[in-house]
Amino acid sequence: MLWVTVEVVFAVVFLALLIGVPAAYTLARREFPGKRLLMLLFLLPLMVPPITYGIPLATVLYKLQLAGTINGVILANLIPAAPFVILVMTPFIEQIDPNLESAARVFGAGTGRMFWHILVPLLGPGILAASLLVLVRTIALFELTFLTAGPDSQTLVVALYYAVFAAGVRAPQSVDAMAMVYMGVTLVWLLIALRFVNPTQLVSRVKEHPQAAA
Fold first, then answer.
1. Rounded to two decimals, what is the model's pTM?
2. Is residue 70 in a domain?
3. Nearest alpha carbon to residue 146 among 44, 58, 64, 49
4. Range 109-124 average pLDDT
5. What does the alpha-carbon distance between residue 22 and residue 114 come to, in Å, rounded to a whole number?
6. How far is C-alpha 120 from the geometric centre of its chain's CA atoms?
7. Nearest-CA neighbor of 88 among 35, 49, 131?
8. How many CB atoms lie within 10 A of CB 14?
9. Dist. CA 33–CA 61, nearest whole Å
10. Mean pLDDT estimate for the chain
C-alpha cells in the first residue's frame, strides 16, 4: 500500500514534469492562434470535479485493460497533474528574461542545449515547487485513484477509505494510524513545497513593459 503510493506518486511527478515544462514554455513564449483555447483545455481538469471525467476515464481504462493496474492509476492521476505543472511553471518561465535565450542562440546553442543549460538551472525553484505540489496533490487525490485502482494498486488514501467503510470489523487503532500517516506525509510535503514557492506566483504573472519614450 505505502510502496504502491510511492511508485504512483513519483511516476506521476516525473511524467507530469516531462509533459508540463515544455508545454508551459511554449505557452509562455509563443503566440499562436487558439492559444487561449488550448490553455483552457489544459486547465479544464483542474476546474471541474474529478468525478465528472473520472467515470468516463475509468470506463476507457477498463476497455483497455489498464484499470486495476498501477499503470492505469498513474495515467489517471497524470491527467490533472500535467495541467497543474503548466499552471505552476508558466509564471516562472514568463519572469525569465528572453534576452538570455537570445544570447545563448547567438553563441550557437541549439534549442535543446539552451533549454538544459540555461533555462533548467534558472527554473530550478519552479520545477522543485511544481514537483512537490504535484506530489502532494497526487497523494491526496481520491476520486480518480478510487475509480481506477485494483486490489494490488491501491494508494494510501484509497486503502484508508476501504479500512473505514468496508464491511467487517476494523481495529480503530489501525485506522487512526493510517490516517495519521496519510496526514503526516501530506503535511510534510506541503510545508516543503511552500518553502520553495510563493503562492502569489500561482495567480499572478509579473511582466515588465518598457515605457515608451516621451
1. 0.76
2. yes
3. 58
4. 78
5. 13
6. 18
7. 131
8. 14
9. 32
10. 78
Portion of the chain with pLDDT greater than 70, in percent: 78
Res. 151 pLDDT band, cuts 50 70 90: confident
Give me the amino acid identity at 23.
A
List b or e across 23-41, with b for residues whose CB sees 16 or more CB atoms inside 10 angstroms: bbbebbeeeeeeeeeebee
| Residue 210 included in any domain | no
In the chain, the DSSP E strands lie at none
In a domain, 214, yes or no: no
The upper half-sphere exposure of residue 34, i.e. CA atoms within 13 Å in the direction of its Cβ, equals 3
Helix axes 172-196, 156-165, angle to 10 degrees: 150
Could you tell me the CATH number of the domain that includes residue 86? 1.10.3720.10
If 0-12 CB within 10 Å is exposed, 13-18 middle and 19+ buried, where does residue 156 land? buried
Total domains, the chain: 1
Supply the range of the domain harboring residue 131.
2-202
- Report the first-to-last Cα separation within the chain, whole angstroms: 66
The one-letter amino acid at 80: P
- The count of other CB atoms within 10 Å of the CB of residue 184 is 10
Residue 148, all three cell numbers: 481506477
For residues 125-134, give the mean pLDDT. 83
**Which are the contacts of 167, defined by CB distance < 8 A and separation ≥ 6?**
none
Cα angle for residues 55, 61, 66 (degrees, 5° grid): 140
Name the residue among 130, 141, 178, 106 with its Cα closest to residue 25: 130
Average pLDDT, integer, range 151-168: 72
